[in-house]
Amino acid sequence: MMAQLHRMSDRELADFGLCRANISFAVREAVDETTQFGAATDQMIAANQNLSRAA
Distances in Å between the alpha carbon of 20 and those of 29, 32, 36, 40? Predict the structure, then answer.
């Protein structure tokens, strides 16, 4: 995941609200949250719960 983010352009990172200096922090935070929620529910939950409305 981190390698993919490093290969992105600055403009692509900005679309995610990231800058190059924040990549390692963002990946660490994402892993920590996934570990916490995955252990509690044993399943992944979609980040955007409005997917059914979008269609």
Answer: 15, 20, 25, 31
